[in-house]
What does this fold into?
Amino acid sequence: MPMILGGSKTVRLVLADDHQLFREGIKRIINMESDLEVVGECGDGITVIELCNTLRPDIVLMDINMPIENGVAATQKLRDIFPSIKVIILSIHDDESYVFETLRKGASGYLLKDMEAEALINAIRSVVSGHAYIHPKVTGKLINQLRRMTYLDEERANLSNDELNKEAEVKYIHTPESPLTKREAEVLRLMAQGKSNKLIGESLFISEKTVKNHVSSVLQKLEVEDRTQAVISAIKNGWVTI
It folds into this structure.
């Protein structure tokens, strides 16, 4: 059950993180400020929706990795149901793919859990004022990623129709039996095209390290030892057509 706290101050916040000790620390930092107050807390992405329906906070401070429903899905639901409530992601992940995904879903800020207390408070106030706030540690990665996206768009614009059609030949077909997530399926489809981790990362606008993690997950879920076996398994199961 969510914990609902009383009182009302200038800015009302709800914390969504599955680590209670971490929530306690953040709550203590925030409640030391006269213009901020944590009015509710929970540990999963479903309960945070219920809390927002009851409390109507100004800000939700949300982790990405939570049980039942993760912070990315919860962010999208919150923005759809309560557009006036701003979401700030507070995560351990500094990978730009997480930042892009959460911002696409409607988050107004992306912070890292190792940031200092004063920086956290300033970031919250910045978002309350109508600005977006991204932790400086990931800002440089985002800029590089945007440059890469622009370059790839320009390269793709120069491809012939035959080359574009060849890219589209390999398709991933999702079935209820498929154990893969949407992102893993995209990685598998590009693996079937023979693309390297680097090229897969460029195609999906994610880092090569993230691609490696997805490939490892695909191999584990399909119970195979290499990329070729993974593609063959997916073709046999009807998940990939060539």
